[in-house]
UniProtKB/TrEMBL annotation:
<dbReference type="InterPro" id="IPR003594">
    <property type="entry name" value="HATPase_dom"/>
</dbReference>
<dbReference type="Pfam" id="PF02518">
    <property type="entry name" value="HATPase_c"/>
</dbReference>
<keyword id="KW-1133">Transmembrane helix</keyword>
<dbReference type="Pfam" id="PF00512">
    <property type="entry name" value="HisKA"/>
</dbReference>
<dbReference type="GO" id="GO:0000155">
    <property type="term" value="F:phosphorelay sensor kinase activity"/>
</dbReference>
<feature type="domain" description="Response regulatory">
    <location>
        <begin position="662"/>
        <end position="778"/>
    </location>
</feature>
<dbReference type="InterPro" id="IPR036097">
    <property type="entry name" value="HisK_dim/P_sf"/>
</dbReference>
<keyword id="KW-0472">Membrane</keyword>
<dbReference type="InterPro" id="IPR035965">
    <property type="entry name" value="PAS-like_dom_sf"/>
</dbReference>
<keyword id="KW-0418">Kinase</keyword>
<dbReference type="InterPro" id="IPR003661">
    <property type="entry name" value="HisK_dim/P_dom"/>
</dbReference>
<keyword id="KW-0597">Phosphoprotein</keyword>
<keyword id="KW-0808">Transferase</keyword>
<dbReference type="InterPro" id="IPR004358">
    <property type="entry name" value="Sig_transdc_His_kin-like_C"/>
</dbReference>
<dbReference type="InterPro" id="IPR001789">
    <property type="entry name" value="Sig_transdc_resp-reg_receiver"/>
</dbReference>
<protein>
    <recommendedName>
        <fullName>histidine kinase</fullName>
        <ecNumber>2.7.13.3</ecNumber>
    </recommendedName>
</protein>
<dbReference type="InterPro" id="IPR036890">
    <property type="entry name" value="HATPase_C_sf"/>
</dbReference>
């Protein structure tokens, strides 16, 4: 196998060869064009000598002689350069001729013109033969591979591809060194298996399969086991393939047998599949095969001591010296003694199985799946372990559990917020009705105002709950972070006070993001206030922006940020930091480390919900005693996003008494329905009340009934708001509708997308909000 230096030298020679061919072609063409110019100059000089043209003739003579000398001189110089470059070309050809890697040159049709000694030794003399014929017995379907590579090289100058052959892995590279000539180089990689032996002499059954399930190669051991040369996976396996490290049923001449299934990802979306028959008498592969296999294998004694591990397993477990550690010294996380597990498998008290365990002593959490099987070697019982990396699987599992947890808490918070919004609508609404009957000089007026103001404060708290559950109504727009922070700087300075130093830094050329500006400002204020409270003795708070470009997915804090362009807002402080045991709970609602009465525990949960609902990510890093850093990551929005058609939000207008308009009010909460009905009747509207959608449809069954507007709750027992409205519109298509809800408008968009002339009124709403919305709909 060539080392990296040998590969680079070989590719460098090929590139030089190609560049030289282009230079020679250019020199040759230029030389051919210069000689006619020299002849033309000589002709002009000859005519000037025989024609008596006076001064004109003398000038023509001088010009002709000059042109002839210049052209011929340049042609001679170019010819000398051409000769020198031909010598260099011959030397390069000699170098390629002694290259130990097979090299060919072909024309556009793939006919071999030149091949070096290594190619002749490997494939025989192929001059004037097709390169496809030379490689036909070397790997599967060479015509497709050669056509694909030559097409790419014709466009881009060079191309290469890794292929699988009976001898192992190959790298086939091609360079276009003239308009119609290509130079091919065939490198062989013998890393798997090692010791210079090919996969065909490996005693362990193996095959190479592509993404479509087509078998590209199978070794002699697998062909002996199955009694055939399989072409597809269904000719080898009974049923679908399991996860690596599990058992699989293999078809053989003597019926199906069980085998361990291990998989190694190869180049070009190919996979190497290794089978380890579970019949004890069939586990007789030589120790050198065991050592060189590209899967981690270990053998344990019945008491749990490690007796043997191959190279890859030693690397996985971090073993560098002699010794026979216990399995419990290497792994943890089963919930019982690992040595007992090995003993149960060795004595057949427990069937073979797989467990995901944590590797001890690793700097970062690393998880591996151990698949155990009882085997017998030389009359001694051993437990064979196939060790496969399960770190990514555990990370995905942790992300899933975290998302399920946050979703469950979010659903709970959203449901609580919905119920509170109904209560607050009734409280603030009836308070509005009482305020209509009291003048400002009335002693009870101030008490009613206090009730109204506290109801509004409760409504703001509910909005924070909806923010965490991502069910609040956002008004996203394209915003420039530099402008937002510049506008907020004065306010933030007032928030942090004189004992704190606020440092705001803008990244140049940062693209716009799409978010609700008001909610984003709320998030930033909350983070800055938290940073201030973490430093009672004073300190520095940093707010900065940064551009971030991800070429690969970013795995962080149980979240995956896909590749793309992002804007990062970073809020840092130099306070005491967050205790490690609290880091996993900081975004949960009602969790706070502040003293009783100093915080609701909803600030960070609200920030989490707003950022997530805006398509962003929020991360936190904290070191006790050094400070905390929050990062908000938003995708760059380079072009306006056409979102779902939003429902019309009624605008506030001057209130007036209606004429004979009739409103059908559908609301399952009696206090809310009572307030809304009274408020509409006070404004002169006729009101028909219904407790649910079915009740509304029963009343609308009367064709003589006139209704000018539907006002309906969304979430109700039985039929929801959009469902009954769609049925009612079948006979009354022109009647507009206002949907009321304690949830966000975005949560209703899918159900209302097919309902025209619909408006949205969020709860809690006041008397003026309701009547203004009704009047706006009826006036359209």
């Amino acid at each position: 196998m060539f080392g990296q230096m040998g590969q680079e030298q070989g590719h460098g020679m090929v590139r030089t060869f190609g560049h030289l061919a282009e230079i020679l072609g250019a020199i040759d063409g230029l030389s051919r064009r210069l000689w006619p110019l020299a002849l033309l100059g000589a002709l002009i000089a000859g005519i000037a000598l025989v024609q008596p043209w006076g001064r004109t003739g003398a000038a023509a003579l001088l010009a002709g002689i000059t042109l002839a000398f210049l052209a011929s001189g340049l042609a001679i110089l170019l010819g000398l350069n051409k000769h020198r470059d031909r010598v260099l070309r011959r030397q390069l050809t000699e170098i390629l001729g002694h290259d130990v890697t097979p090299c060919f040159s072909t024309d556009m049709a793939g006919i071999v013109g030149f091949q070096n000694a290594a190619a002749r030794k490997r494939f025989g003399t192929q001059r004037d033969e097709s390169l496809i014929n030379a490689l036909h017995d070397y790997f599967a379907n060479p015509s497709a591979v050669l056509f694909r590579l030559q097409s790419r090289a014709d466009l881009m100058g060079s191309a290469r591809e890794d292929v699988t052959s009976q001898k192992g892995q190959l790298r086939l590279s091609v360079h276009r060194f003239s308009p119609e000539r290509f130079l091919w180089r065939l490198e062989e990689f013998s890393d798997r298996p090692s010791n210079g032996r090919g996969a065909d002499v490996l005693s362990l059954p193996m095959l190479v399969v592509n993404r479509s399930g087509v078998i590209l190669f199978s070794n002699e051991a697998l062909r002996r086991l199955t009694g055939t040369r399989p072409r597809s996976l269904d000719q080898v396996f009974q049923g679908p393939l399991p996860q690596p490290g599990h058992e699989v049923s293999v078809k053989t001449n003597n019926g199906a047998i069980r085998a361990f299934f291990a998989q190694v990802d190869g180049p070009g979306e190919r996979h190497e599949v290794y089978l380890m028959p579970l019949t004890e008498r069939e586990f007789d592969q030589p120790s050198d095969d065991f050592e060189s296999l590209p899967i981690a294998l270990a053998k344990f004694s019945p008491d749990g001591h490690l007796r043997q591990a191959n190279r890859l397993a030693r690397e996985v477990m971090g073993l560098t010296g002699p010794g026979e550690p216990l399995v419990s010294d290497l792994f943890e996380g089963l919930g019982r003694s690992l040595s007992d597990w090995v003993a149960d498998v060795a004595t057949a008290r427990r069937p073979s199985g797989a467990e995901v365990l944590r590797l001890r002593g690793a700097e970062e959490d690393r998880f591996f799946q151990l698949s155990l099987r009882r085997i017998v070697e030389d009359g001694r019982v051993r437990v064979l372990a196939i060790i496969t990396d399960a770190t990514d699987l555990k990370r995905l599992e942790a992300q899933f559990h975290q998302s399920q947890k946050m979703q469950a808490v979010g659903e709970l918070a959203g449901g609580v917020a919905h119920d509170f919004n109904n209560l607050l609508t009734a409280i603030s609404g009836h308070c509005d009705l009482l305020l209509l009957r009291h003048d400002q000089d009335d002693p009870e007026y101030a008490d009613l105002q206090q009730i109204h103001q506290n109801a509004n404060r409760a409504a703001a708290l509910v909005r924070q709950l909806l923010g965490f559950s991502r069910k609040q109504t956002l008004r996203p727009e394209r915003i420039d972070l530099a402008d937002v922070l510049s506008e907020m700087t004065h306010l933030l300075n007032r928030l942090v006070g004189e004992r704190m130093r606020l440092r705001v830094t803008h990244a140049p050329g940062l693209g716009p993001i799409r978010a609700d500006k008001r909610q984003l400002e709320q998030v930033l204020m909350n983070l800055v206030v938290n940073a201030r409270d973490a430093m009672p003795g004073g300190g520095t708070i940093g707010v900065e922006t940064q551009a971030l470009t991800l070429r690969e997915p970013l795995e962080r804090d149980r979240a995956t940020v896909p590749p793309g362009h992002y804007a990062v807002i970073r809020v840092t402080d130099t306070g005491d930091g967050i205790a490690p045991e609290n880091m996993s709970k900081i975004f949960e609602p009602f969790f706070t480390t502040k003293k009783i009465g100093e915080g609701t525990g909803l600030g960070l949960s609200m920030a989490y919900g707003i950022v997530k609902q805006s398509g962003g990510y929020i991360f936190c890093d904290s070191v006790p005693g050094q400070g905390t850093r929050f990062e908000l990551v938003f995708p760059i929005n380079d072009s306006p996003v056409e979102g779902t058609k939003a429902l019309t939000r009624p605008s506030a207008q001057r209130l007036s008494r209606s004429g004979e308009n009739v409103v059908m009010l559908v609301e399952d909460e009696a206090p809310v329905r009572a307030f809304a009905a009274r408020a509409l009747r006070l404004r002169g509207y006729g009101v028909l009340e219904a407790v649910d959608g079915e009740d509304a449809l029963r009343q609308l069954a009367d064709p003589q009934l006139t209704v000018d507007l539907f006002v309906s709750d969304v979430v109700m027992p039985g039929m929801d708001g959009p469902a009954w409205v769609r049925q009612a519109r079948a006979n009354r298509p022109q009647v507009p509708v206002i949907f009321m809800s304690g949830y966000a408008e975005e949560g209703l968009a899918e159900g209302q997308a097919r309902i025209d002339n619909a408006s949205f009124l969020p709860k809690p709403f006041s008397l003026n909000d309701l009547t203004a919305a009704v009047q706006a709909c009826l006036s359209r």
